[in-house]
Design brief:
Elements: E1 3-9, E2 13-19, E3 26-33, H1 34-47, E4 50-57, H2 69-82, E5 88-92, H3 96-106, H4 111-114, H5 117-135
């Protein structure tokens, strides 16, 4: 059984999360620099059985593109060329950073640790993935 990999793509950093082999639970994986993301993801997919990639698509409250949307689309095109056998699904990522921050507060993470943007990115990727799992229970 393959895993699902989730990506919260940002101009500077990329948060990653992954499911367990049964695709029931999303867990944070890593935060990496954007310029190394493609190589990292490609290597991860060669090492692990990844059957789908979920990527957060940034939109504003009116469902219009944000300043990051174009960069995410370009990254998707690059991944599709490099990993053509793995389907990529776009997921609405509105509010995930705020939800990630609140999740860290609720989880008792210290204020110093909550300021680490890398932590927010991988928790955001986890929230994106868990919401995808919750909305697709027959995966």
């Amino acid at each position: 059984m393959g895993r699902i990999l989730s990506i919260d793509y940002g101009i500077k950093r990329v948060g990653l999360a992954v499911t367990d082999p049964l695709k029931m639970i999303a867990s944070p994986l890593e935060t990496i620099e954007s310029n190394t993301a493609s190589n990292y993801i490609k290597a991860y997919c060669q090492r692990e059985d990844v059957e789908r990639i979920i990527i957060g698509m940034p939109k504003d409250l009116q469902n219009k593109d944000t300043h990051s949307t174009d960069a995410v689309r370009k990254f998707i095109i690059k991944l599709q060329k490099e990993l053509d056998s793995i389907p990529i699904t776009e997921v609405d990522e509105r509010f995930t950073s705020k939800m990630a921050f609140q999740t860290m507060i609720d989880g008792g993470l210290k204020k110093k640790d909550r300021k680490n943007k890398g932590t927010i990115d991988k928790v955001s990727a986890t929230i994106i993935l868990q919401s995808y799992l919750d909305s697709n229970p027959t995966i």
